[in-house]
Design goal:
Blueprint lengths: L1 H9 L5 H16 L5 H29 L12 H4 L4 H27 L7 H18 L13 H22 L7 H21 L1 H7 L4 H31 L8 H17 L8 H22 L1
Helix pairs in contact: 2-3, 2-7, 2-8, 2-12, 3-5, 3-6, 3-7, 5-6, 6-7, 7-8, 8-10, 8-12, 9-10, 10-11, 11-12
């Protein structure tokens, strides 16, 4: 069935990252007792559309640039397998650009309907346009930044500082620099998901001229980089809960175990085909981290 093919093209196993980013921002706002359900739903829906857009554009771009080739280890992509045509993929990309725009504008209306002439809606609208452009330009179009080793930077910024910090600000209408610590954690964990993908695809990317950061670092240093991402993320959140003097912060030990396990396995496994399952494991480890963080904040 075509629906099943499209669900595969959406890459469902990566989508919890969208909720992890928005969920952290909402949790930090709730900690300040300024939580909003309508903003949470609007932000989560917009981010979900953006991530699906990014996945579809990535499928399209990698197919045309030759990165989805016979050397690739992970699941077959929609266009690579021939299950979805180029025209269908282009139409789907347009649909999700429009959905992202509509959802984002709806979110801004909910937040700023009582102050339509403020400069803040313009700033967030421009951030939304930048998010759409970043989602598409990762591997699609001319000079995609993902082929220059910049994917990690954009994932860190948009899943970390923009996603978390933006959600927090929309709910609270105030800024606290300390929230950049947990926002950095989410950004680094999201970059770790991408790094697992890129370590897995080093040989395929090399043959296609896709110079990801993992390829530039090489298999050994890319694994050390993975460990660094996770350890730095853990340190940032540990510092945040220490600053906030959270009484039950020791519970985060259980949140850190799954990501530490991921760091150990990615570092120790040398065969690319055996690394792929740890992409999904890193996604759900990040979600587990968020859920336990919510528990710590609520106690």
């Amino acid at each position: 069935m075509k629906i099943k093919l499209w669900l595969q093209a959406f890459r469902l196993r990566t989508l919890p990252l969208a909720f992890t980013s928005i969920g952290m921002g909402a949790t930090l706002a709730w900690y300040e007792m300024l939580f909003s359900w309508p903003i949470l739903v609007g932000a989560a829906l917009t981010t979900l559309f953006l991530q699906i857009l990014s996945n579809l554009a990535n499928d399209y771009g990698d197919f045309h640039n030759g990165a989805d080739n016979e050397q690739r280890v992970g699941p077959a992509r929609a266009m690579q397998s021939g299950s979805i045509t180029e025209k269908e993929m282009k139409n789907a990309i347009i649909v999700f650009i429009l959905l992202s725009l509509l959802s984002g504008c709806g979110l801004l209306y909910v937040v700023f309907k009582n102050q339509p002439f403020s400069w803040l809606p313009v700033v967030f609208f421009l951030l939304g346009i930048a998010s759409i452009a970043a989602a598409v330009k990762y591997t699609a179009g001319k000079n995609p930044y993902g082929y220059k080793g910049l994917g990690d930077v954009f994932v860190f910024l948009f899943f970390g500082w923009v996603g978390v910090g933006g959600t927090y600000f929309l709910m609270t209408r105030e800024w606290d620099w300390t929230i950049l610590l947990p926002a950095t954690t989410i950004g680094l964990f999201s970059a770790a998901v991408l790094n697992v993908n890129n370590i897995r695809d080093i040989e395929a990317d090399r043959s296609a001229g896709k110079k990801t950061l993992a390829l530039r670092l090489g298999p050994v240093y890319a694994r050390w980089y993975h460990v660094l991402l996770i350890m730095t993320g853990i340190t940032c959140t540990a510092l945040y809960v220490s600053i906030e003097s959270m009484e039950y912060s020791w519970l985060l030990c259980f949140a850190f175990l799954p990501v530490l396990w991921n760091a150990f396995k990615v570092y120790s496994i040398q065969e690319s085909e055996r690394i792929d399952p740890f992409l999904k494991q890193m996604v759900f480890s990040s979600l587990t981290f968020l859920l336990i963080f919510i528990l710590v904040v609520s106690l």
